[in-house]
Design a protein that fits this description.
Layout lengths: L18 E8 L3 H13 L4 E4 L8 H4 L20 H6 L9 H14 L6 E2 L4 E7 L4 E6 L4 E9 L21 E4 L14 E5 L3 H13 L2 E6 L5 E3 L7 H9 L1 H9 L19 H14 L3 H4 L9 H18 L3 H6 L13 E3 L2 H4 L5 E5 L5 E4 L3 E4 L2 E4 L2 E4 L8 H4 L2 E3 L6 H4 L18 E3 L12 H22 L4 E3 L1 H15 L30 H13 L5 E3 L1
Parallel strand pairs: 1-2, 1-6, 2-3, 4-17, 6-18, 7-16, 8-9, 8-16, 9-12, 10-11
Antiparallel strand pairs: 4-5, 5-6, 13-14, 14-15, 19-20
Bound molecules: 3-acetylpyridine adenine dinucleotide.
Length: 548
């Protein structure tokens, strides 16, 4: 059932007319694609999706660096809203690689004819709520003007790339790339001297691949990281077919899990078993690879420092066993933050790469970057010459992409002003003073701490339910109550306090961006608890929201 549609009133055009639609969705990644289908095809809304890229894919359109791959197992890194789609798609590997995820998302767009109302190559520049019409006025960098009742962001949590402001950064005469906006034609590293700055997920995935292709690679590391081997492999079709027979139950388990994965979790403390038993459990889950090392071993690795230290020490011993040069191994060994305090990294051949003769590790703590020159990067130990610099330096996470858009709510209040001391949301979905605006996997929701498609589907379905409810009741607006928002922000903050997350400088806390308020942004209570909470909110007549 469509809400009262304004679509007949005007049409889009370069002459400055305002095009009226029911909903504007920003972004055509997982969130935007699913919302488009849900709102347009199952509810009959007039939807306009605006996408900056030239194709669908979001994160997976932009992040094309060598080795880019998802850390979630492929059979779970997909939509679950359509059974035929789930049954028909065949993943080739245990973890899906970027080209394959992009193929999957373009397949979804084809299958559901989703492109016809997506405007590509266009950025939303501003969205202002007009209190006289109760509509959002949206403008783009191409001069489009749209008026909509529902404004929904599917702009991702990690889409605003960040290159630190190193002195002389623009002087470099060679090639320079950020992993999050990689050239579509790829980069030819053959015969080249390459510097990679950064050893987070993007650096750790790209470093082994670049090392195999280039003449010499220098890695500039600020913080050594804990890593778990991925154990990437091709997937046996029989295994996938078995999973598909049980897909409903598997997804149901994921939806009601902590992290959006269908893994069996344990309630065993790392401190409740003998040293020998603990090592055996670590070895077993290490051999399985990926996040099973966390979910399948012990329950308190992220909440108890002593428990976390047992996992840290296990991983340190693995680094020592893997890296031949003891001095390099020591520099790669994390000691300044607990295991589980930063995003856990899943690697393939990362530590092995430092045994290659063409790879050098530089510790920026003892050799800090002084400047970037025409020919390379100068640290306190001298100039490292390079033909290519790869910035694997991360993102202005969770809030950066919102701040790039001039979003204004009631009374012209700017979202970026409201969030100056940290993001304020109700359920990570809604903001008081910004009616009918929904943020898919916004700050304050489980988002980046889960398997993203599971979190995205839950949010999209929640939004669709809210829209449907308002239509049925003949209501116009929904908006978070300021008190509910304040209580939610406090709850999100309280949940994070006893966890390891508070013990490291991470992008979860905004610590990677100079001047960004240090606030833990995602909800760490788990997917299942969050989902139950949202269901209660709906059952209690949208508790915490004002409907009018
Ligand atoms: O970014 P990051 P990313 N001088 O912020 C270093 C998701 N993701 O793009 O740790 C020197 O993690 C910084 O050092 P430090 C995933 O959620 C997923 O790698 O801050 N170094 C760090 O080493 C991930 O967490 C997948 O001390 C500087 C690196 O740059 C998130 O995206 C794949 C510096 C940045 O690491 C972001 O990952 C890729 C400076 N001034 C990404 N500033 C998969 O699913 C920063 N650094 C596999």
């Amino acid at each position: 059932m469509a809400i009262t549609s304004d679509t007949d009133a005007t049409t889009a055009g370069p002459g400055g007319e305002v095009r009226q639609v029911d909903a504007v969705v920003i972004g055509a990644g997982f969130s935007g694609l699913y919302l488009n289908w849900r709102l347009r095809d199952t509810m009959g809304l007039d939807v306009q999706v605006i996408e900056a890229g030239d194709e669908v894919g979001g994160t997976w359109y932009w992040n094309r660096y060598p080795g880019a791959r998802c850390d979630s197992e492929s059979y779970m890194y997909c939509f679950a809203f359509d059974r035929d789609l789930m049954q028909n798609w065949e993943w080739s590997g245990k973890y899906p690689e970027q080209p394959e995820i992009l193929r999957y998302l373009t397949h979804v767009a084809d299958r559901f004819d989703l492109r016809r109302n997506i405007q590509f190559g266009t950025r939303v520049m501003a969205a202002h709520f007009d209190e006289t019409t109760n509509r959002w006025d949206v403008t783009t960098d191409r001069g489009d003007r749209l008026r909509c009742r529902w404004l929904i962001t599917g702009i991702g949590c990690l889409s605003s790339g960040q290159i630190p402001d190193f002195p002389g950064r623009d002087r470099f005469q060679g090639e320079a790339y950020h992993t999050g906006s990689w050239p579509h034609e790829g980069v030819d590293f053959a015969g080249k001297r390459v510097i990679v700055v950064g050893t987070g997920s993007s650096g750790v995935q790209s470093i082994p691949v670049i090392a195999r292709q280039c003449e010499h690679l220098t890695v500039l590391q600020r913080t050594p990281q804990y890593m778990i081997p991925a154990r990437h492999a091709t997937v046996d079709k029989a295994v996938l077919d078995g999973i598909k027979q049980d897909y409903d139950a598997i997804f149901d388990k994921a939806r009601h899990s902590m992290g959006g994965f269908p893994y069996d979790v344990t309630d065993r403390s790392a401190l409740s078993v003998s040293e020998q038993e603990r090592q055996a459990i670590y070895e077993e889950t290490w051999a399985q690879g990926g996040f099973k090392f966390i979910f399948g071993s012990f329950s308190d690795l992220r909440t108890n420092l002593d428990a976390s230290e047992t996992a840290a020490e296990f991983i340190r011993s693995k680094i020592r066993q893997t890296v031949h040069d003891p001095d390099v191994a020591e520099r790669l060994t994390p000691r300044d933050h607990p295991f589980g305090s930063k995003r856990t990294l899943i690697d393939t051949d990362y530590f092995e790469t430092y045994n290659r003769p063409n790879v050098t590790l530089v510790d920026l703590n003892t050799s800090p970057i002084e400047e970037i020159t025409e020919t390379g990067i100068r640290t306190s130990d001298g100039l490292i010459e390079a033909d290519v610099i790869v910035y694997a330096t991360g993102f202005d996470a969770m809030t950066g992409s919102f701040n790039r858009i001039d979003i204004r709510g009631r009374g012209g209040e700017r979202l970026r002003d409201k969030w100056a001391a940290g993001p304020l949301t109700y359920l990570g979905l809604s903001v008081s003073g910004f009616p009918n605006l929904f943020m898919i996997t916004g700050p304050g929701s489980p988002s980046v701490l889960t398997n993203m498609p599971v979190a995205i589907e839950q949010h999209c379905e929640l939004v669709a339910g809210i829209v449907d409810h308002l239509q049925e009741q003949g209501l116009e607006l929904i908006e978070a109550e300021p008190e509910a928002e304040a209580a939610w922000v406090e709850h999100v903050n309280e949940l994070a306090q006893p966890t390891m997350f508070m013990h490291a400088n991470s992008w979860y806390l905004g610590a990677n961006i100079p001047g960004k308020p240090r606030v833990f942004m995602p909800y760490c209570g788990g997917m299942s608890t969050y989902r139950n909470h949202c269901e209660k909110v709906v059952a209690n007549n949208y508790d915490g929201f004002m409907l009018s």
